[in-house]
Amino acid sequence: MSQPPPIPPRPNVMFFFTDDQRFDTIHALGNERIHTPNLDALAASGTTFTHAHIMGGSCGAVCMPSRAMLMTGRTLFHIEREGQNIPEEHVMLPEVFRRAGYATFGTGKWHNGTSAYARAFSDGAEIFFGGMDDHWNVPSCDFDPSGKYPEPKDRSRNLDIQYDENNKPFRRIHTAPQVFDHVREGRHSTDLFADSTIDFLNRVDANRPFFAYVSFMAPHDPRLTHRRFHDAYPPDSIELPRNFLPEHPFDNGEMDIRDEKLGPRPRTPDNTKKQIGEYYAMIAHVDEQIGRVMDALRATGRRENTIVVFAGDNGLAVGRHGLMGKQNLYEHSVRVPLIFSGPGIPAGQRRRAFCYLLDIFPTLCELTGMPIPDTVEGHSLSNAILHPAATVRDSLLYAYRDLQRGARIGDHKLIEYAVDGKRTTQLFDLAKDPFEMKNLAEDAAHAESLTRLRNELRRWREELDDPCETFWDGF
User: Fold this and answer.
1) Domain stop point among 344, 378, 393
2) What contacts 356, CB < 8 A, 6 or more positions away?
3) Using one digit for the tens of pLDDT, what is the confidence trace for 37-46?
């Protein structure tokens, strides 16, 4: 009597998540200046969504709501808005895998509360509960299944001076082995989190599927990493972006937030090139460490049965439109990288379907045969992964605090501002103007597109329960 075929093991998930990495910072996807061989290889082995976005942010720390949307699959106005913790009624992505018997491991940045972390992960190491910190002095925590996490570890041995958000020294700790013009040689956050992941891969039960969430703090400022990466991107080798401006053309409501104070105003070409070089250096370092983790995964013999996801939590201006931060709705701040690679995923493919990071949750559920919780509002991308012409969404909504709202249909994009009682409107044709430099809002030839997008904004407001009445007054 013949035996039934063996049931294939459930696929593992390796999820790499970066902090402040813009969509156009991967060599294989069009940025010839940056060196990202491991992300290039991941794109070559899988399917890239070139129009992945975040929905926006309800606070200046955009990464906090972005990560809450990722982890819950819920839309911007349907997540907890007052604090960091994800409420228990919002089922999280790792929680689904943990309930299904997976070993769920987390390392790196977690910006959504300690109790939520305890629900999500059965294992972890070098956990950073916060938004930003010194990469050479990460106040990380060991995994605690109780979720209490009273005190982070002291890592001050790696440096002699701690720097503030403007890279100014403010507290001497004690002597480091070497200091090079703000570039310190020691154990960097990126290395720390990669090492922790490799250790997990080497000790996890080979007969148990795993979900590993590797959340880098880089390339978030302060942009300090190993000297060899900085040396690869000297300012005189950097080109200014096409949409570089000394000043933003009007007050967008966040001209004096922390991020916008990271460079002089008006913006200067020299300082902007320096900051772009530092940004690229941080990304190149992350790329190298992703390569180390992927090598370790292959060494375990489990790569062929592992879905690998790479994404960023939001973009960053770094000089574009006269801005430095992510507290805006331009493409450079709301558009992010997103790559899937693994069993059943077509290699070397790109998809233009509109999607959000919150769509990753139901996608991974479908790709691994997990039920999608009722609390999830995202749309699975699995059909779009397999079918190049498939669509996911007809339009996109963007929102930032009670100051900015935006919508996109096709190639036309609207951004509306309400700042101190003043209204400003921008309309762009991204097919002809991908850098969002020519405002068409006053052009009569585009009046129909303007009306259509404004109506779309109103529809989104009702469907997604936008609570910010001050923005909508008189709209």
Assistant:
1) 393
2) 52, 53, 54, 55, 69, 378, 393, 396
3) 999 999 999 9
